[in-house]
Design a protein that fits this description.
heterodimer, A: alpha/beta, Rossmann fold, 7-stranded mixed sheet, 5-stranded mixed sheet, 14 strands, 38% helix, 22% strand, B: alpha+beta, OB fold (Dihydrolipoamide Acetyltransferase, E2P), Dihydrolipoamide Transferase, Chloramphenicol Acetyltransferase, 3 domains, 8 helices, 20 strands, 25% strand
Chain lengths: 329, 404
């Protein structure tokens, strides 16, 4: 079996093409997904291949086209709705939270919403405070939806199909800094599970718990820590709702120490939830306070040096892990 | 690199004498190899290693007596396995830099992120509470270590679980070495006394007994042995052993260990066989995986075990692995055995002598060979109802000997 050289962007495109070919109920809808090929060029070429019925450009109205997606899902379709960035998804919050997440329950289980919403998240590209935030943790607060955060080529390629098989709404957050990431993917790469976290690097001294765009910074930090004699375990959460709590507590029980790395803000965040579960479930396994590396609590700055300073970086992760393991950095 | 430790070959063992090394520095070893001969109260034991790797250095010379848990050798491993299953993990060999002195509580350390800085200011004049991690508190309780005497190497001088383990190891090292007992029989008597006293002190035993009709088993055995050459004949005790193992698999509460207030079921069924020694005393080494092995193999292993227990040398895994014990005192003419459980196991099965008895069955009275099977059970791990079921399964299995 061979491999192909690809990118995160191409892996998502391959997943979309595969879904469009395999299931006639699948269609893609969003701003500029057709003629322009997608704001991040993910859907480039799909309009030519599948035609305007299945690759649909929409007006600039998130509330309207997410609502249309919910209607289509109710009507038996399997829509994939693209929202340009998570910041803009707030315009559709009513549709996502008040409709998509609730209709199954409010209809007494009669109607499910098999809808997939993809959107870009995260900073690092000097797109400033209206295009750079990481609000996936907010969505993870909402019962009735699933929240996926693919960080690897395998997950970019494989999560979409599994999400489409789910009877309930699934949100997929693609970190903007990953689209150009290249690598090798097996020829036959396909669907992956969306229920479990994955240990991307085993280690015995501290658990570095992260997801999405910060996975790669965290892996780099783990490599630096190794050269300093600290064996860090890197856990990629992959899915923020439902959280794979068992994987988190198992890792922390082995290492007795944890650092949560999250590009979101710390107050009222998914990182706070992860720490709470650690304290609730494995308090007696801990050898040090659980620590966090999050973004500074400011709207994301535009200036490069300020944006860098606001985001979790390899150096901060290394220093925090050292502090947790050794009591000093 | 992994430390190879003096193993604990039973709850009662505190130290052992390294009689002979079977390896040298630079030798390759693999899991299961016998690497040393150690003298304990139970006699000479061959010690096996539980990892693959290369011997880095031998740290204890032949003739030395060291406490359980002392480092005997270091192994450069091809896997980071512990030196022995069940033994406490070796303290990390990494030298940690000495912890900085506890910073004054008034201000956070300058470079520490705010989230890690001391957040509570103790009331003026009050002693600040000692920093001990939750894991270290739990470990100290398990090992009986006094936290006041432990040096902390964690953040701000906090005591970590590794610190507690180091303190426990140091305490064992410091234990005064008693002179090697001149009289091994006396030492074995003391070891048995300690284990049995602990058993009766800690284990709330319950006792159940039943009579098992051995007609079918003995008839099958006689027919079977007629077909076999003399050297391969089976004894009925091997049927009993096998029946106990299969029953233990069906009633897992009988097969495992009690410790730290919980019962842990064992994954394999390793039956300890009580063997009395000619010079006096008793050992109960295990035959491994009795539920998985055919009768022929069990017969060979049982004879080998008895032979080696009485004249030769047992292996460390045999001495420490038993998950349930069987004692068979029928040879001595005993009819009923009310046994004492060997801690931390939770059950002991006793068999008496096969006796011909008047036996009523299907409304008729006949004479049948009958054996009394008894169970001493740990009431913390199981109840009489389950124990009764366990004995009933043994009975049922012995009625169909061809299936054993």
């Amino acid at each position: 079996m061979g491999t192909v050289t690809t990118t995160y962007r191409e892996a998502i495109r391959a997943a979309l093409r595969d879904a469009l070919q395999r299931d006639p109920r699948v269609f893609l809808m969003g701003e500029d997904v057709g003629r322009y090929g997608g704001c991040f060029a993910v859907s480039k070429g799909l309009l030519q291949e599948f035609g305007p019925e299945r690759i649909r450009d929409t007006p600039l109205s998130e509330s309207a086209f997410v609502g249309a997606g919910i209607g289509a899902a109710l009507g038996g379709m399997r829509p994939v709705v693209e929202i340009m960035t998570v910041n803009f998804s707030l315009l559709a919050l009513d549709q996502i939270v008040n409709n998509a997440a609730t209709i199954l329950h409010m209809s007494g289980g009669q109607f499910s919403i098999p809808l997939v919403i993809r959107m870009t998240t995260g900073a690092g590209r000097q797109l400033a405070a209206q295009h750079s935030h990481s609000l996936e943790g907010w969505y993870a607060h909402i019962p009735g939806i699933k929240v996926l955060t693919p960080a690897t080529l395998e997950d970019a390629r494989g999560m979409l199909w599994t999400a489409l098989q789910d009877p309930d709404p699934v949100l997929i957050f693609e970190h903007g800094s990953l689209y150009n990431m290249g690598g090798e993917l097996p020829d036959d790469a396909g669907a992956v599970d969306i229920a479990t976290a994955s240990v991307r690097r085993p280690g015995r001294d501290v658990s570095l718990i992260t997801y999405g765009g910060t996975l790669w910074k965290t892996l780099q930090a783990a490599a630096e820590l190794a050269s300093d004699g600290i064996e860090a375990e890197v856990l990629d959460l992959r899915t923020l709702r439902p959280l794979d709590t068992g994987a988190i507590t198992a890792s922390v029980s082995r290492t007795r120490r944890a650092v949560v790395i999250d590009e979101g803000w710390r107050s009222g965040s998914i990182s706070a939830e992860i720490m709470a579960r650690i304290i609730e479930q494995v308090f007696y396994e801990l050898d040090a306070p659980v620590a966090r590396v999050c973004s500074a609590e400011v709207p994301m700055p535009y200036a490069k040096h300020l944006e860098d300073a606001a985001l979790p970086q390899v150096g901060t992760i290394v220093a925090t892990a050292r502090q947790v393991v050794r009591g000093h950095d | 690199m992994t430390d190879f430790l003096m193993p604990s070959l039973g709850a009662d063992m505190e130290r052992g004498t390294l009689v002979e090394w079977r390896i040298r520095a630079g030798d390759a070893v693999k899991r299961g190899d016998v690497v040393a001969l150690v003298e304990t109260e139970k006699g000479l034991i061959e010690i096996e290693i539980w990892m693959d790797g290369t011997v880095e250095s031998l740290l204890v010379s032949e003739g030395a007596t060291v406490p359980v848990g002392a480092v005997l050798a270091t192994i450069r491993g091809s896997e980071a396995a512990a030196a022995l299953p069940g033994a406490a993990a070796a303290p990390p060999v990494v030298e940690r830099p000495p912890a900085p002195p506890l910073p004054p509580v008034a201000g956070p350390a300058p470079r520490a992120p705010a989230v890690l800085a001391p957040s509570a200011h103790p009331a003026a004049g009050a002693e600040p509470r000692r920093r001990v991690s939750p894991a270290a508190r739990k470990r100290a309780l398990d090992l009986g270590v006094d936290l006041a005497a432990v040096t902390g190497t964690g953040e701000g001088g906090a005591v970590t679980s590794a610190d507690v383990e180091r303190a426990a190891a140091a305490r064992r090292e410091a234990a005064p070495a008693v002179p090697a007992p001149a009289d091994r029989q006396a030492a074995m008597r003391r070891a048995i006394a300690a284990a049995m006293a602990r058993s009766k002190r800690e284990i709330p035993h319950y006792y159940l007994g039943t009579h098992v009709d051995m007609t079918a088993a003995l008839a099958w055995l006689a027919a079977e042995n007629q077909r076999r050459p003399v050297t391969e004949r089976l004894l009925y005790s091997v049927l009993l052993l096998r029946a106990v193992a299969l029953a233990a698999r069906e009633v897992p509460e009988m097969n495992g260990f009690w410790g730290n207030d919980v019962f842990r079921a064992a994954t394999g069924v390793h039956v300890g066989v009580a063997i009395s020694l000619r010079q006096g005393g008793l050992v109960a080494p295990a035959i491994h995986d009795v539920d998985q092995k055919p009768l022929d193999q069990l017969m060979r292993e049982m004879l080998d075990l008895v032979q080696r227990a009485r004249t030769g040398v047992l292996r460390s895994s045999e001495v420490s692995d038993a998950t349930i014990t069987v004692t068979n005192l029928g040879e001595q003419g005993v009819e009923l055995v009310w046994g004492v459980i060997y801690p931390p196991q939770v059950a002991l099965v006793g068999f008496g002598k096969v006796i011909e008895r008047p036996w009523a069955s299907a409304g008729a009275l006949g004479v049948r060979p009958v054996i009394a099977a008894t169970l001493a059970g740990d009431h913390r791990a199981s109840d009489g109802h389950r124990g009764g079921r366990f004995l009933a399964i043994i009975d049922r299995l012995l009625q169909e000997p061809e299936k054993l």
